[in-house]
């Protein structure tokens, strides 16, 4: 059953909580690494390890910030267009972590920001279907300014996350937590583009389709 949609302030707060959730881990690792460097008794090997941790975590935090700015933020003025090449770079920086890789089959062109935001949010949903890692393959549906997308997730034990398909279709209302708000926001983006998003199994893979 569909629940009450969150109002503007609640939606903004839940999305902010989602972004903070994505940034807590790398920023916390940076703090831990700095604390290790400040300890005078640590040997050079330990300090080198701490410095490598700080560098890696800083890169991760930067990539996640850039991705979230585009996927959840304003990303330019109303009616702005975004280069799919830039979106690809942000997606790879955020998602490709040694466990998950991307096959990007989209042409390089400018699309309206809501379509690009929709694509990035579809990637987040698809990544959740392969918690042990795997491949995300992005294919175009149609061409030009009306292009939509299909994301195919393949990996060991690919599965449908609980309630996500219902949140995308509108069969279930959004729960008041940061995890449920992201697929709900994806549905809002699809509606703004005149599209519908569906999450479904396809053989051993899971597909997220906007059409």
Summarize the structure.
52% of the residues lie in helices and 18% in strands. The protein contains 6 helices and 7 strands, in the order H-H-E-H-E-E-H-E-E-H-H-E-E.
What's the topology here?
Layout: H1 8-38, H2 44-72, E1 81-83, H3 84-95, E2 100-104, E3 110-112, H4 113-128, E4 134-141, E5 148-154, H5 164-169, H6 178-192, E6 197-202, E7 205-210
Parallel strand pairs: 2-4
Antiparallel strand pairs: 1-3, 4-5, 5-7, 6-7
Please provide a written account of the structure.
The protein has 211 residues and is of the alpha+beta class. The chain has helices at residues 8-38, 44-72, 84-95, 113-128, 164-169, 178-192, and strands spanning 81-83, 100-104, 110-112, 134-141, 148-154, 197-202, 205-210. A hairpin with a 6-residue loop joins strand 4 and strand 5 (148-154). 34% of the residues are buried.
Radius of gyration: 19 Å
Number of strands: 7
Report the biggest beta sheet as strand number plus sense, adding barrel if it closes. Answer: 5 strands, mixed
Q: Give me the side-by-side strand order of the main sheet.
A: 2-4-5-7-6
Number of helix segments? 6
Strand residues, percent: 15-25%
What's the mean pLDDT score? 86
What is the N-to-C order of secondary-structure elements (H for helix, E for strand)?
HHEHEEHEEHHEE
Question: Class by helix and strand content?
Answer: alpha+beta
Low-confidence region ranges:
none
Portion of residues within helices: 40-55%
Globally, the shape reads globular
- The CA-CA distance between the termini, in Å, is 23 Å
